Structures are given as structure tokens and as C-alpha cells.
Amino acid sequence: MTPHLEINNLTMAYGDSVIQKNLNFTVKRGEIFIIMGGSGCGKSTLLRHLIGLLKPSEGEILVNGVSLWNTSFEERNKIISRSGVLFQGGALWSSMTLGENIELLLTEYTQLNNKQRQDVISYKLSLVGLSRYKDYYPSEISGGMRKRAGLARAIALDPEILFFDEPSAGLDPVSSRLLDNLILELRDSLGATIVIVSHELASIFTVGDNAIFLDPTEKTIIATGAPKHLLESSEDSRVIQFLTRTI
């Protein structure tokens, strides 16, 4: 089966400053894939490359076997439209209700009429446990609820791939665990492939099927595998320190 995502010899840089180089990995269809590493190693920058916001300095990103950048503008937009993104803070429009935040995508990218859009909005909010909060503004709900609302918006168009940037950041342990469970439920119900940037160990071990570890010194991947397997078998002290929070 063709990997859902395939990254070949990817180099990321801002001008002459190389962030990461020679990145090679694949993400299988339907798996939850973790991008991990210490602060400043380029995790979020890699995510921005994967969702098409940044163009690689070198290398290529293949989605369903199609190059994200060596293709037409129209084809790239089609590829990007089949993905959903949950940013760290939820990135909800503060002047819009939760329902309006979701409807914005539906209006822009679908031909659904108003009744159909409202049905989709209600369904997506129900999937994340927010069916009663359609008319609430982001400022009127908790941080954990804003994360879930952002997730509802991310799945509005039934994406094939979901990208999460530090989904548990700023959440208490209970809210974080509830979000982890929700991610697992959505993966199973939607059949989506999920890529997560995270440094939260509890979440990494709970949801991660496979992972890469980015090192800021060598500026490349120094470990690949299931998080639990890396914890048990890695001989690299940097990986063990990260996965055990030891120095």
C-alpha cells in the first residue's frame, strides 16, 4: 500500500540557517504518527512543511504518492483541502461562535445549503462533545473546550489526514487525557491518518503508533519507531532522557 505521507531527503531552512536536514520517513494510512524532540528542534516547522505552508529547501513531500510541490497550484490545493489542522491555541475566530467558525469552512469549500451546513455543524460538534455550545463564543468556554472546538473545525470537511500541533499544551491532566481519548475515537470512526507534534509523554505513549525524534544538534532524525519500543530498546541517551524526563 502506498504510504499516506512520504518524506524524502527533506531539508528545512530559513535563509542560510538550516533547521533540519536529510529527513526521511513515511506515515502509514490510518496510523497516529508522532513528531517529537526537545524545544527548538523544528517540530512545528516540520508540521508547517507537511501542511503546505512552507516549501522545503530540498527534498519532497508525497501525499498519496503525489508530490506536494512538484505539481500544479490547483492540484496542491486539492491535496491540502483533504487535510485538517488543529493549531496549538485552537486558532478559532474570536468574533465568531463555534458554529460560525465551522460554517466558514463549509461555505468556502462546499456547495451545501444552509440546512445541510447546520446539520454538519451539529454533527461535528457532537463528535467532540460540544453539541450544546454551537452559539457560544470562544471566550465563553474553557481552554479544553476550545481545543475540542478547534478539532471540530479541523474535521469539518472529513479530511483524510489530521495534523495536530501540541494538542495537549496548556491543558490539565484530566482534559489532556480526555483529548487523547477523543483523538483515538476520531481515528477509529473517521479512518483518518493523524500526525501529531508533541512533547507530552502521557499523550505520546497513549496514542502514538509510530514516531520520529528530531535532534537540534545533529539537525536530523536520530530515532524512528513506536514510542514504547523506543523507550524499551533505544541506546541513544538523548532519546531516553526525553522519554523518561531524566538528565
Automatic annotation (TrEMBL):
Pfam families referenced in this protein's UniProt entry, alphabetically: ABC_tran
ABC transporter domain span: 5-243
Keyword Amino-acid biosynthesis: no
The organism of origin for this protein: Desulfuromusa kysingii
Gene Ontology molecular function terms on file: ATP binding; ATP hydrolysis activity
PROSITE patterns hit by this protein: ABC_TRANSPORTER_1, ABC_TRANSPORTER_2
Keywords: ATP-binding, Nucleotide-binding, Transport
InterPro entries assigned to the protein according to its UniProt record, in alphabetical order: AAA+_ATPase, ABC_transporter-like_ATP-bd, ABC_transporter-like_CS, P-loop_NTPase
Protein name as annotated: Phospholipid/cholesterol/gamma-HCH transport system ATP-binding protein
Presence of the UniProt keyword Transport in the record: yes
Gene3D superfamilies: P-loop containing nucleotide triphosphate hydrolases (3.40.50.300)
Superkingdom as given in the UniProt entry: Bacteria
Signal peptide segment: none
